[in-house]
């Protein structure tokens, strides 16, 4: 498993240089029991392959789906997940907390 955000940024750069379409997801805000700190990254390619973590597994699937759409349409998005949100049980944040993730196309 990739352990540092520097590694994730290097992977994003390498994937982009190799011609892969790439998006970068970054934790921009947390509250409560969010498992990853602000600044954590997830890099995703157009096929849905990814490295890194924005939530320790709670919302990665939903973020990857959105990132593939960001790659396709080029429009950055801010995603929010939390217990007050109707997606809380779907994505696994039922223990509490909230997380906001910014997803942008890299190339």
UniProtKB/TrEMBL annotation:
Domain annotation XdhC- CoxI: ranges: 15-82
Protein name: XdhC/CoxI family protein
Any Pfam family matching the protein: XdhC_CoxI
């Amino acid at each position: 498993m990739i352990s540092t955000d520097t590694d994730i940024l290097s992977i994003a750069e390498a994937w982009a240089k190799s011609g892969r379409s790439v998006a970068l997801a970054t934790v921009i805000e947390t509250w409560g029991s969010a498992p990853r700190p602000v600044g954590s990254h997830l890099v995703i390619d157009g096929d849905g392959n990814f490295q890194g973590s924005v939530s320790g597994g709670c919302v990665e699937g939903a973020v990857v789906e959105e990132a593939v759409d960001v790659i396709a349409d080029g429009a950055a998005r801010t995603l929010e997940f939390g217990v007050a949100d109707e997606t809380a049980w779907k994505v696994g944040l039922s223990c509490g907390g909230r997380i906001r993730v910014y997803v942008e196309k890299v190339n």
